[in-house]
Predict the structure.
Amino acid sequence: MQAHDLSVGGDVLQRVMRCARSAIGRYGCHPATGVALLNVSENATYLVSDPDQGPSILRVHRLGYHTEVEIDSELAWMDALRAEAGVRTPRILPATDGSRVITSADPSSGEQRQCVRFEYLAGSEPAVTPGGSGPSPDDAVSPRTGPAEALHFEELGEITARMHTHSRQWARPAWFSRFHWDYECALGARARWGRWQDGVGIGAAEREVLGRLDAVLRSRLAAFGTGPERYGLIHADTRLANLLVSDGAGDGAGARTGTGTGTAAAGRSPVAVIDFDDCGFSWYLYDAGTSVSFFEHQPQVPGLIDSWLTGYRRAADLPAADEAEIWTFILLRRLLLVAWIGSHTAVDIARELGAGYTRDSCDLAERYLSSHG
């Protein structure tokens, strides 16, 4: 595993900020342009406020996670989804020399990082309960439930199905390259986010329960297979947190007709899909697992998955044999996130969840194993 360098502490975020400030010079930004940190996860994301050009988003990459070709491949799929599938994605804003991926250096240390600039899409995560005051910080780990959330999960399922349909049909460029989220790269010898055994709060009892889960997941995934009808290019992080409901009518790129999506029916705002940084090759049903990331153990999850399936079936077929394995992919994601929390200590949600997430994972694992083991 390549270490998550944004979690090493020290002055790393100061170095990354200097890379970001250096990068905006490549885009012809106004001298008074401001750069403000929005989020740290796999990468660092900044709001760029240019008095002339308006707001945009700058993503500064962690070290060693992607090659330039892999980043270009991500951007190519985003373009194709927007142009061919009616899935609204942020446009890429090239540097003044036309480059979509640039390398920027921290003037103080000389450290170099890849950067991509995206258009700014106004909007918010679709997690508002009617009569409520809006999304709360706890929504990511224990979302509220109600008619609005059910509708959002239907929409998420439908958008996911449209992306899957496009993935199956898209003629990828010959140079296209993205990593895999198969067993070996998720939980096995090449675990991309580290070993779950090194997660927070893993002791002998947790290792025994989660070890049994790991073995069953490996066996069931091998039996499920990686045929083209089940395994292909996916977003790999399709959560409500990665949807943006626009404040206005949008650009029409995702206009909904019939069973299509991109904008919702009956006056609801257009929806954009963001954060394709983890996109790669995996089981299509892994996207179902990611939809309930961080709260897989909560009692509302079965109902939300039912809503996700309702939306998915509006845009694509899902065989009964595939649907029967959805909880395998929910548990695959869960165990992968145990590893992620252990290796991403600089990320707010990882610090918040900590050992409690591991304890709840053991309880969830036992319930899954009682029916799937």
